[in-house]
């Protein structure tokens, strides 16, 4: 998590040049690049670097000039990938979400990503030869425009959307960037694309205490913080398919091996919470690595990845 960092020039939180990092399941919030002339990339500034950014969240980052969340500069070698990310409420005069500048060909690929609600600047701004390609993305509610400039016309192709992502917000204060069950970014809305953004469904429309059968069959499980240095707070919603419905929560490693049962055959509930203390069934600290939370109920399974970093 990169929170409330400040740099005068490029990259309020991260500055990369001629390197090839991969950023996975990171959160960038409240970072700033402040210089009135060179303050670009509120969260990340990178040059000549095929950076991969996967399942990351960028919120309320600010750049004084360009790229409220991310600024990409290509002068020698290009590339770069955003996949399954959520960019919301980032701000810059050029590119509230992303600013992309290329002197040579080097396509930025963006897929299954939300870019929404920038209070200043268009969703994506481009200069030079920049020509980003978006697939299965939702671009919506950005003050300077959504599918404009170098994105013009892409909203009509490749599963892209121009629709309110319907974030849970204050209804899910621990995970406000989850989406409501009827969101166009939810896993069931567009079978061609599946889930869009970094977060799963986390809430339901108000007034639907007794959900329809379709809504009741959706399972939701989340772990926080993620990545975690040890303990993980787990919340889940289970279906109301029957009065005596039972649910199970398990922790497994990436090979599918059971590490520890966390909740066994408990009644359903609209919102349940349990804690994992970071230990396996033998009472030993689980090693650093990727794990899967599994929620089993009514013959269905929901999963969520949890990264343990000790």
Order of helices and strands: EEEEEEEEEEEEEEEEEEEEEHEEEEEEE
Could you say which structural class the secondary elements and strand pairing correspond to? Answer: mainly beta
Q: Going across the major beta sheet, what is the strand order?
A: 1-5-9-13-16-19
Question: What number is the mean pLDDT?
Answer: 86
Fraction of residues in β-strands = 35-45%
Number of strand segments: 28
Biggest pleated sheet: 6 strands, parallel
- Radius of gyration from the CA trace? 20 Å
Low-confidence residue ranges: 207-217
* Inertia-based shape: globular
Put simply, the count of helices is: 1
Count of discrete domains: 2
End-to-end Cα distance = 15 Å
Bin the helical content. under 10%
Description of the structure:
It is a single chain. With 310 residues, this protein is mainly beta. The chain has 2 domains: 2-201; 210-308, Immunoglobulin-like. 1% of the residues lie in helices and 38% in strands. The chain contains 1 helix and 28 strands. The protein has one helix at residues 213-216; strands spanning 2-3, 6-7, 14-17, 22-24, 27-29, 32-33, 44-47, 52-54, 57-59, 62-63, 70-74, 81-83, 86-88, 98-102, 109-111, 114-116, 124-128, 133-135, 138-140, 179-180, 201-203, 220-224, 232-237, 246-253, 258-267, 272-276, 289-297, 300-308. The strands form 7 sheets. Strands 1-5-9-13-16-19 form a 6-stranded parallel beta sheet, with no helix packed on it. Strand 24 and strand 25 (258-267) form a beta hairpin. The chain is globular. The relative contact order is 0.09.
